[in-house]
Amino acid sequence: MVLEPLQTSPETLETLVTGVNLLWVLVVTFLIFFMHAGFAMLEAGQVRSKNVANQLTKNLLTWSVGVSVFFVIGAGVSSLVGGGGFSPAFVAENPNDWVGWLFGAVFAMTAATIVSGAVAGRAKLRAYVTYTFLLAAVIYPVVTGITWAGAYISFGGAAFHDFAGGMIVHGMGGIAGLTAAYVLGPRMGRYNEDGSVNVIPGHSLTFAVLGTLILAFGWYGFNVGTAASVFVFTDGSLQLGAFSYVGRVAMTTTIAMAAGAIGAAGVAWAKTGKVDTLYVANGLLAGLVGITAIPDTTSWWGAFLVGGLAGAQLPIVFSFIEKRLQIDDVCAVFPVHGSAGVLGTLMFPFVAAEAPAGGIVNAFIAQVIGVVAIAAWTIVATAAVWGVLKAIGQARVTPEHEQEGLDVSEHGVETYPEFGSGESVVADGGMVSENVRTDGGSKDD
Amino acid sequence: MVLEPLQTSPETLETLVTGVNLLWVLVVTFLIFFMHAGFAMLEAGQVRSKNVANQLTKNLLTWSVGVSVFFVIGAGVSSLVGGGGFSPAFVAENPNDWVGWLFGAVFAMTAATIVSGAVAGRAKLRAYVTYTFLLAAVIYPVVTGITWAGAYISFGGAAFHDFAGGMIVHGMGGIAGLTAAYVLGPRMGRYNEDGSVNVIPGHSLTFAVLGTLILAFGWYGFNVGTAASVFVFTDGSLQLGAFSYVGRVAMTTTIAMAAGAIGAAGVAWAKTGKVDTLYVANGLLAGLVGITAIPDTTSWWGAFLVGGLAGAQLPIVFSFIEKRLQIDDVCAVFPVHGSAGVLGTLMFPFVAAEAPAGGIVNAFIAQVIGVVAIAAWTIVATAAVWGVLKAIGQARVTPEHEQEGLDVSEHGVETYPEFGSGESVVADGGMVSENVRTDGGSKDD
Amino acid sequence: MVLEPLQTSPETLETLVTGVNLLWVLVVTFLIFFMHAGFAMLEAGQVRSKNVANQLTKNLLTWSVGVSVFFVIGAGVSSLVGGGGFSPAFVAENPNDWVGWLFGAVFAMTAATIVSGAVAGRAKLRAYVTYTFLLAAVIYPVVTGITWAGAYISFGGAAFHDFAGGMIVHGMGGIAGLTAAYVLGPRMGRYNEDGSVNVIPGHSLTFAVLGTLILAFGWYGFNVGTAASVFVFTDGSLQLGAFSYVGRVAMTTTIAMAAGAIGAAGVAWAKTGKVDTLYVANGLLAGLVGITAIPDTTSWWGAFLVGGLAGAQLPIVFSFIEKRLQIDDVCAVFPVHGSAGVLGTLMFPFVAAEAPAGGIVNAFIAQVIGVVAIAAWTIVATAAVWGVLKAIGQARVTPEHEQEGLDVSEHGVETYPEFGSGESVVADGGMVSENVRTDGGSKDD
User: Fold this and answer.
1) How many CB atoms lie within 10 A of CB A391?
2) Which of A38, C4, C26, C297 could form a disulfide with A215 if both were Cys (CB 3.0 to 4.6 A apart)?
3) C-alpha of B316 from chain center
4) Are B251 and B303 in contact (CB under 8 A)?
């Protein structure tokens, strides 16, 4: 083989960078999209069988309505708030700009879908869809506008650091969910008159764990994929971009996930002598949430620490929300996404492999400012929307519909017509008859 | 770092193109393969619990038998019909040629597996496997032979356009399914003597929605992956290949999927006042089918339009098939894959971002010719195979076996031995006893 | 466009190789990780509903505990045994070294999780976690140390060949599972006093088949991804690495999977006249296991042969283990992973597309040595650990807990509080009543 000068131009290298980066971003975008299957299964598994179809429909519509709204409005609002003017996604100069839009959209829809887990079992479908519309159009885009797009938050040389959305996506979603659940009030029968709590177990741990593992799979796209630039073309030469440290992101994501499951299992075991399966699953997710703001900078021991604490806080915070605050956060979205996201974001300067820019104190203050700003905006906006819906009597289904189950009342379907609700259902293979829709007459309901 | 002339040859660029393209095609091929899990869950969820294992077995054997046959025969038939001579897949000059074969095979198996949803609950396993054999060996390869391989269909300078198989794969599969379901006749109890219809609800909406979301995930491989060339090496230089417009494919696929769910939800809500979960799920899929022929050329508003119409037609066409034609298309494969595929294929010239070659009229005529040719061949071939099977009494299980359920009669298993069929089953943890296998004694069966 | 000399250096090509290879390895690593969802569903589907949460928890903790241990200890042990000194994973010179660690970890965790299927329904959680700890820290690392790391096994110029872990991962896991199941003894009621066998059917074939298809999806990462180097940089130029033959790996993996399902279906049909769904699913997996040691070298007809035999042996070996050896291998992990892995590994020289180095006889002897060495170590180490646990009364739950189900006794949860166990469950949302726990006793079993 005769070596001869390469008949090409610098543009070849730029083309190489473009093609490979597009390939990578597309693959991880698909993975992040698949998290919707994870959320759907995780949430479906944690609700009563009479409300499963409702939960699934909400998940399908979160994506469908949300991504459409984010295409037409939301992405433009984000750029507007970020100082780039209103440039909606449908106006793309180059078709490949839509890859960037879709990459942003799957993050946005993750924030949106978290909320559905908190308001399960009693929110009206139209109320939920209305909120999703506003979240995708304005609420979430404002959060990304002031952070990823505008980068307005900093303190003393330290910029607010949230690599893949531990606070921007998960913290925001978890806080929004808790706020909505508070405004909406608990499911019927969740609390007794004396303030004691009834547990309403989900209908299928298998689906919940399946959802957990699908989410963990997609999360590799979420975190590792946020290292979006395989290559960069600078000063006329091709270099590794975020892929110069992608191995750290992959490692810390893995370790924090593992530590989260172990942390939650440990606390559950210490409290009750048994290892609650749902705590282990949600602990694994809390570990992932915990590291999501900081997988690019955290040391290996920091990943163990952040993940372990994010998992360990889960049973404690869940219990606090349930028993003290008496907020009915059905799928534990606040302990999993909210408090774990805040925790990881705030731990940034203390677990970094290298000292953060601006120093530890300034970096911590910048993190606090970011967390407070995002939380405040999310709480205010979410409370306003659900408050208005509640005020006009559109937030919540009627008590009759809630008792009957939302599947029948909102969707006209039954999720498992052959299973689980007694002889009359088995007998006709079809819709449940009136006497079946008594909610099982359980003391736990 | 001293810059020196790159010690390499033009072959380096070719190697780069080869390696990166192989990587991309492999990844999307895996995603498309995963659609079998989606079909398995979607279909299993839509059948009675007594027929679930049968449906799952059909899905496993569709892939196993089909891909073997396509390897030994089918790929060769496709190249033969396409004018390239009979070159079966096992004769590969270079091992990496098998990547191209596998990429083709996952599309072929998608067409094959669609049929199983239409003939659920009464087709004999051996009949179904026989049809799958012939589909993978001849029926589908003829379709790809006259289109993707031979490119024979055109009119006045306009070539038949089907980017990822909206008609070639999905339209073909949906039409084949409807044909087979017609020949086979409806399930027992599906229609009353007065012509009225009994609904036979599927046993698990959760599995159906899980399947839907797995399919949507895999569909990104299906559509975006059909933009198979990241790079091309032309005139001695490396350029973006299909990746010069891959962002459009990703965007239109996403938007049409979303619009499909919204369109179906809207029509269902308008008709009944409720949002049927299965319509939303199938609408999302119909939106995907609708765009599959044309994701590379469609404008953003066209994607909303095609997806929305594909979703909106679903409840209407389903009802027409069910009530007027009285064909028992169990999993709605015609409204989801057939009519939606035809619709999107025909809309090609009207929603394209740029005027199609040959002009709108000629392009539309070319599309009509392609749709008619594929439909005619599929109907004739499918009716012939199932007609012969029916004539020799091998198409359908006995009424006793159908009532008992195909799981027991064809497979000797019960899918859920602990659930759902009354006390006798719960008591022994094993097989259902005789009195349970009465098909529920329902008017709906 | 003016062509000018490329302003770059040889380092550009090295950077290209690094970036693209990292991208590929990350993607396939995510796919292999997702196999945990597959194992979780496959195993959950094959156990009684009273033990599902236990199985799911074991799967979650296998990953969480195992990957942590492999990070801190196991990877270091592997390098130590392999002659490279103790270099634990947390000491990485470059963050991207962690990609290599994670790639190794997902293989290690696959071996670990296989065991949980064999000991289902009676192993104590703490015993299982202890074994997982030791497997991840020492038992599996010794196996990789003497093979992939150290490459100590060879005979007459022929080196032990195990491309992706047909023996090292699957054979090892299957043999470990059988050993542990033997030490632990069968589930209560599995065998009658006269030696006859009671079948204890799993609670959901749907989950089992879902798990199968998720595993097959992930297996493309496992096998094809073991062709880990897209490019290599040698003699100053960029070449295809393992991607020079990646198409063979993809083809043989596909064909063997298909042949495995067909082989198992055929034997099941020949034996009983029916096509058992679980045999088809497990046969598909056995076909995959069979080819895993040799997808890079096997001819296309060899893939049919290896896969077909791996599938065909499944019902026979399963029956032998169950009836003759009377070992209660709940999820058939030995026939699927053990004997199929051994079979494929030993068939290496006979089905290779090109004559193996050292000749067929020497190559076969090298394979035998490798299989025997790995099997012996695995049996001894596994028997020792479970033997000690048994001796101190920590291996197995009490008969009361086993009868009650491990979900309640070990985890304090019920997987399906609304389904399947008769009226008492529907009424109280809680525990199954005594008369339900007869575990099989059916005339049909």
Assistant:
1) 9
2) A38
3) 20
4) yes
Determine the Cα–Cα distance for residues C133 and C121; give it in Å rounded to an integer.
Answer: 20
Tokens of A140: 């979430």
What is the Cα–Cα distance from B55 to B120, expressed in whole angstroms? Answer: 7
Q: What is the pLDDT of residue B282?
A: 98
Tell me which CATH code domain A11-396 carries.
1.10.3430.10
ipTM of the complex model: 0.94
| pLDDT over threshold 70, residue A213 | yes
Residue C179 CA from chain centroid, whole number: 15
Residue C224 · residue C250 · CB < 8 Å: yes
Q: Which residue has the tokens 């084949």?
A: B176
Q: Whole-angstrom Cα distance, residue B306 to residue B342?
A: 11
| Domain residue limits, chain B | 11-403
**Cβ–Cβ of C426/A440 closer than 8 Å?**
yes
Q: Give how far A302 is from chain B: nearest CA, Å.
A: 33
3-class DSSP assignment, residue A3: coil
Q: Are the CB atoms for C156 and C362 separated by under 8 Å?
A: yes
Chain A residue with CA closest to C9: the answer is: A237
Q: How is domain B11-403 classified at the CATH fold level?
A: Ammonium transporter fold (1.10.3430)
Contacts of residue B284, Cβ cutoff 8 Å, sequence gap at least 6: A60, A64, B212, B216, B257, B258, B260, B261, B264, B311
Cβ-defined contact of B8 to C238 (cutoff 8 Å): yes
Q: What is the mean pLDDT of chain A?
A: 92
Q: How far apart are CA B404 and CA B418, in angstroms?
A: 17
Nearest to C10 among B6, B37, B97 (CB): B6
Sign of CA dihedral A340, A345, A346, A351: positive
Residue A10 pLDDT: 77
Express each pLDDT in B184-243 by its tens digit. 999 999 999 999 999 999 999 999 999 999 999 999 999 999 999 999 998 888 999 999
Distance CA A57, CA C152 (A): 57
Q: How many helices (DSSP H) and strands (DSSP E) are in chain C? A: 17, 4
Rg for chain A, CA atoms, rounded: 23
pLDDT digits (tens, 9 = 90+) for C365-423: 999 999 999 999 999 999 999 999 999 999 999 999 999 999 999 999 999 999 865 43
Q: Do C244 and B29 touch (CB under 8 A)?
A: no
> Residue C1: is it exposed, middle or buried by C-beta count within 10 angstroms (0-12/13-18/19+)?
exposed
Residues B343 and B292: beta-carbon distance below 8 Å: no
Name the one residue in this structure whose structure tokens are 């004999």: B124
Reduced 3-state DSSP string for A206-249: HHHHHHHHHHHHHHHHHHHCCCCCCEEEECCEEEECHHHCHHHH
Q: Are C59 and C43 in contact (CB under 8 A)?
A: yes
Check CB contact under 8 Å for A247 and C63: no
- Using a CB-CB cut-off of 8 Å, the residues of chain A touching B445 are 429
> CB-side exposure of B363: number of CA atoms within 13 Å?
19
Q: How far apart are the first and last CA of chain C?
A: 76
Cβ–Cβ below 8 Å for A250 and C207: no
Under CATH, domain C11-241+362-404 is a member of which superfamily?
Ammonium transporter AmtB like domains (1.10.3430.10)
Which residues in chain B touch residue C240, judged by CB atoms under 8 angstroms apart? 15, 18-19
Per-position DSSP letters for C233-290, written without gaps between them: EETTEEEESGGGSHHHHHHHHHHHHHHHHHHHHHHHHHHHSS--HHHHHHHHHHHHHH
Cβ contacts from B onto C, under 8 A? 237
Distance between CA atoms of residues B311 and B285, nearest Å: 8
Would the CB atoms of C6 and A11 count as touching at under 8 Å?
no
Identify residue C109 by its one-letter amino acid code. M
Residue labelled with tokens 């389904």: C419
